[in-house]
Every structure is written in C-alpha cells, then in structure tokens.
Amino acid sequence: MQHKLYVGNLPYSFRNDDLENHFSSFGSVQSAIVLSDRDTGRSKGFGFVEMGSAEEAAAAIKGMNGKEFDGRALVVNEARPQEKRTSGYGNNRY
C-alpha cells in the first residue's frame, strides 16, 4: 500500500490545515492539500493526504472513509497515479 490518499466529497469550507488536523490523529501527515479552482480559488471538494507509513495510511482509510463533515460523507482511498491527459488544442500532432 502506498502512503498517498485521495480524499473526496470534502466540504467546500475545508482547507489544507483542516485536512492535516483531521488526519494527524492517525499518524504523521507528510502533506495535505485541498485542490482549488485556479480561476475562482474555490475548493474542488477533494484533496490528497500523504501519510508517514503504509500502516498509518491504512488506519486513516479505516477511520476517515465514510465519516461525515458538514453533512458530507468523506471518500478516502489509496490515490491512483494521475492518468496522462491529452490536450484538445491540437497538441497531438504527428
């Protein structure tokens, strides 16, 4: 198991510090980031947390997946590698 977790269905009021504080009870948090829209600065409702070990990551998944915040049940699981995206602007030329 890797140490990086995907955290979805976050309340839009959540910030990086909130994410770190809630996950720190399961172990050392190496990084915690809530993604936001670059134009508006508004949260996209998901983020990533990197835990210090696989055991801490497993405990965080078990403890936080389905937990409710502001009426929203969090979705917490192992982060998958980002898929390669192609641009729709003609960058796929031969």
Q: Nutshell version of this structure?
A:
By secondary structure, the chain is an alpha+beta fold. It contains 2 helices and 6 strands; from the N terminus they run βαββαβββ.
CATH topology of the domain at 4-67: Alpha-Beta Plaits
Give the CATH architecture of the domain at 4-67. 2-Layer Sandwich
Major sheet size, sense and barrel closure: 4 strands, antiparallel
Please provide the ordered H/E string of secondary-structure elements: EHEEHEEE
Summing up helix and strand content along with how strands pair, one would put the structural category as: alpha+beta
CATH first level of the domain at 4-67: Alpha Beta
Rg for CA atoms: 15 Å
What's the β-strand tally? 6
Low-confidence stretches: none
Q: What is the number of helices?
A: 2
- The percent of residues in helical segments reads 10-25%
Strand order of the largest sheet: 2-3-1-6
Mind telling me the CATH superfamily name of the domain at 4-67? RRM (RNA recognition motif) domain
Instruction: Tell me the overall shape.
Output: globular
Mean pLDDT: 91
